[in-house]
Design brief:
The complex is a heterodimer. Chain A is mainly beta. Chain A has one domain. Chain A has 3 helices and 15 strands. The C terminus of chain B is likely disordered. The chains are: A mainly beta, B alpha/beta.
């Protein structure tokens, strides 16, 4: 397996064969990319956006998956500035795509994550899972669309998102959409939005945790499984540090 | 804690008054059996003492060694040595048991517990309540059986070593063996100097943990405060004797029949 760190995702164009894993640090500005994963090849992208530098980013692109190609994307975004993500995945016969996204949105940031899966052929599989924590007056939008084209028999898709809304006047949106033009498919979606339940908070505080500590522990639970997906242990620990320093919520 | 004093406590939940002027003085070392029919405010009293935000104190006071308990936040009450074992512990998704335990222990001491000490303490705790250490990585109370939840509550009591423990029907849903085990853990905690207020509907638990006093709550007040002979009396006779001997109605005010005039009036208004 090749493990590579590239400065920008647009440096990746083509995965010819075998497995390639890339760690990508998304910093600032607009990035556009167009990647093709050839037949039977697989690509794993670990895209992170840490706290610094604080600046807005825009990420849009297309990933074409040829026959039986495999794609795994893990994305963790703890930056305080805006981000606008729009990625289209085109799945040919037998291709598999999985997206796992964890994000925090704080201050006055506006974050939009949009993953569009196009099931062009039979036996294509896609899964999009997003988890987020919203605070202050920020916005967080989890949008996902799966299009299953006619003839894509045995296609399988799952779109899900959950946001813990700890904001004062923020805006949280989870909107999974399924457009299906074939009968013989498996498709499901799930959306969960919510304030931290009072009963859980009271329970945890009754054991000595401050409101801030209790809420942090709950949000760690939301984000940690996604951070654990990052294969570079240095980066993973750094991200876990962010999650566990309880920097998201003010008393 | 030397003394907890509750004076003229009135508590409402969503606008409905549940406690209606409750008085209770509780001393260090006491093990109080808190009795009373269902729905007369026992759990409300516990939640008010612990500071549940849904339970509004409209009148009265609770002090702990002269300090105003009601002015303290929920976590401050815990740090003062209070602990409530919940009747129905909530399932907290995403939080691993072990992470939670470590943090609650740390919240009660100045310096964070050393990992080695933590593991030992936890191991011992699991053994005492007969839970498997596999519980460590499970999410807090999530998918636990009724009995496992109750044991998990007692485990947390052991980890925090509180001065005053409120047990709200800790014996419901426990089989005989588990009840023995839990009682043993409670007695051990008593030996360490902890005091207890215990709500249970069954004399069996009380026979195992040996309270030194008992009180009966009716309609949001303590109507009888006395010796442990009350437990036997309630176990054998129920609560009807209270009405006969003491002339206290077991009906809550709101349960009393509505007079015809008000009914007719309501209809007319509609």
């Amino acid at each position: 397996m090749k493990e590579l760190v590239v400065n920008s995702i647009d440096q990746i164009r083509h995965v010819e064969k075998g497995n390639e894993t890339y760690g990508i640090d998304v910093t600032c500005g607009a990035i556009h990319f167009d990647i093709t994963v050839e037949e039977n090849a697989s690509l794993r992208l670990e895209i992170i956006r840490i706290k610094n530098p604080v600046c807005p980013a825009k990420l849009d692109g297309k990933i074409n998956l040829r026959r039986n190609a495999k794609l795994e994307v893990v994305m963790v975004d703890f930056n305080k500035e805006d981000i606008d993500v729009d990625i289209h995945s085109n799945l040919q016969e037998g291709a598999k795509a999985s997206y796992k996204v964890a994000a925090t949105s704080s201050g006055k940031a506006k974050k939009v994550f949009n993953f569009h899966m196009f099931h062009l052929d039979p036996r294509t599989t896609s899964s999009v899972k997003m988890a987020g924590v919203l605070t202050d007056e920020a916005e967080l939008h989890f949008l996902g669309t799966s299009d299953i084209f006619k003839g894509s028999v045995k296609a399988n898709t799952r779109q899900e998102g959950k946001i813990a809304d700890l904001s004062t006047s923020g805006k949280a949106e989870v909107s999974p959409i399924l457009n299906i033009d074939e009968n013989d498919v498996v498709a499901s979606h799930g959306a969960a939005l919510g304030k931290v339940p009072d009963a859980s908070l009271f329970y945890m505080m009754s054991r000595g945790l401050t409101k801030k500590e209790a809420t942090s522990l709950l949000t760690i639970g939301y984000l940690k499984p996604y951070v654990m997906e990052i294969s570079d242990s240095n980066i993973r620990n750094r991200l876990l540090g962010y999650v566990e320093e309880r920097g998201f919520i003010d008393d | 804690m030397e003394q907890l004093v509750i004076k003229n406590l009135h508590v409402s939940v969503e606008g409905k008054e549940i406690l209606k002027g409750l008085d209770l003085t509780f001393n260090k070392g006491d093990i109080l059996a808190l009795l009373g029919p269902n729905g007369h405010g026992k759990s409300t009293l516990f939640n008010a003492i612990m500071g549940h935000p849904r339970y509004k104190i409209t009148e009265g006071s609770i002090t702990i060694d002269g300090e105003d308990l009601l002015a303290m936040s929920v976590d401050e009450r815990s740090k003062k040595g209070l602990f409530m074992a919940f009747q129905n512990p909530p399932e907290v998704s995403g939080v691993e048991n072990m992470d939670f335990f470590k943090q609650i222990i740390n919240s009660h001491q100045k310096e964070n517990i050393k990992l080695f000490d933590f593991y030992n303490k936890l191991k011992k705790g699991y053994e005492e309540v007969n839970l498997s250490e596999d519980m460590n990585t499970r999410h807090l109370n999530e998918g636990f059986s009724g009995g496992e939840k109750k044991r998990n509550e007692i485990l947390q009591m052991l980890l925090l070593n509180p001065e005053l423990v409120l047990l709200d029907e800790i014996d419901s849903g426990l089989d005989v063996d588990a009840l023995q085990l839990i009682s043993k853990a409670i007695n051990k905690q008593t030996d360490k100097g902890s005091s207890f207020i215990v709500i249970s509907h069954y004399a069996r638990l009380y026979s195992l943990i040996k309270p030194n006093r008992a009180a009966i709550m009716v309609d949001g007040k303590i109507v009888v405060d006395g010796g442990t002979d009350l437990i036997k009396k309630v176990d054998e006779q129920g609560y009807d004797w209270i009405r006969k001997e003491l002339g206290i109605s077991l009906k809550k005010e709101e349960d009393k029949p509505i007079v015809l005039e008000s009914c007719a009036l309501n209809k007319a208004v509609k």
